[in-house]
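Structure, all two chains, one model.
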Amino acid sequence: MKQRSKPFAEKFMVRPGRRFRLVDCDPGGDGIFADKEEAKVLTAKDAEAIDGLQDRLYAEGKRALLVVLQGIDCSGKDGTVRAVFNTCGPIGVRITAFKAPSAEELAQDYLWRVHKACPPRGFIGIFNRSHYEDVLVVKVRGLASPEAVARRYDEINAFEKHLSGNGTRILKFMLNISKQEQAVRLRERIATPDKRWKFNPGDLEDRKLWNDYMKAYEIALTRCSTSHAPWHVIPADRNWVRNAVISRIVRETLEEMAPQYPQPKDWNPARIKVV
Amino acid sequence: MKQRSKPFAEKFMVRPGRRFRLVDCDPGGDGIFADKEEAKVLTAKDAEAIDGLQDRLYAEGKRALLVVLQGIDCSGKDGTVRAVFNTCGPIGVRITAFKAPSAEELAQDYLWRVHKACPPRGFIGIFNRSHYEDVLVVKVRGLASPEAVARRYDEINAFEKHLSGNGTRILKFMLNISKQEQAVRLRERIATPDKRWKFNPGDLEDRKLWNDYMKAYEIALTRCSTSHAPWHVIPADRNWVRNAVISRIVRETLEEMAPQYPQPKDWNPARIKVV
């Protein structure tokens, strides 16, 4: 089972150096899994495996894993975290939801708050949105000059290379939902009293800018999918496909990292007496 | 079922103003639950309920819950978090494990790092160890002057009163294991290759100081169990008793807080059209 010719991740990876187009990616994800039940069972097994691997990662204490989740409103970022990382739990996982920057954050360069939120060695860090907002919403809404945005792709690549060179493995996931599916989810959010608080009328302004956002994603994924920090485009119209694809890629990545429990160096287990 | 005459928590609560003695507390916890299976089922149900209540807490955005876990090595702090809070998951739960303070932290007063780690509104914060180490290990090992330690009980009470007055509900749990049970767990840790990394020969030095630690706990719990931040002493020799007791107290506390989903103030759900 471990003898796979190609990692599963490759099917979803944006090839470094190649121009990426969203039209080539199906948000449905038919045929990847036999059915919903199979996908859910696989996700649960992967989540268990991720939990065990994170324990080793922590015990080893040398490396970290950073998972970047990007996607338009309702693309399922929170749902992904729950399905893939709740088994691991809050002890091993540090999540940061990046919102509009505070005054303190705006007084620094845009990567300052991001660097501060990176996972310490031994942890899985999750970014719910990320520094990519600085080339997505910032570009679409014109919150920085076009020249400043243009510089950021290379800066982000340099930053991620630095992280990667210092022990942080990076996986980036774009949750790809269709415009129709977003409409379904927004309508459900508005219709359900217990979900209404998640909705903001301003979300509809972003929806009107759908094409601009998709273009910004295409540029960002084309310019910032690198061998040390690859982007993956995940079919996200069905939650169970999305969860099963991401859990398998995370699991395979951790298996490839193969963290090991350290053995005692300065004491001999056979000689310790607990009295 | 909701019509309880007395909250379950009262059985385990250290009465404010009363002298507390550990000898009155049984680490076994016989008879609280019918059996292990029942306790596990109840814990899982409580964990689900806590998840739902935290969602409301976040949506409401006005208050936080801080859970302080204290206990000697092997008392089960991590196991408690997994059993009670993994269902809620890393999105809603922020955990801080307090280790020996860093140089930066030592350059500030002892509550500085603690305040910084307090949960934002909407979150459940968990302290794995806490500011109570500043009247436990610090007292037992003489890491601060007796006069400085003596001042801290009142300072801690004032700090917790401040938090409580500003929207943070506080629950403090002392995981009470017997000295015999700690020996069993330490021996298992040493004997199991995958758990050995958790053991430090220095842990045995703390074990030799068992009585000093227990005295320090008695003073801390006597002086710092208050109506706004009560201490609970949890029978912890059996994991399933410990988990079921804590999950029920956390659930009852959140139910009493009764967070509510907010309804939209400045928009009318019936008028929103998603196109």
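Residues 36-60 of chain B form the longest helix (25 residues).
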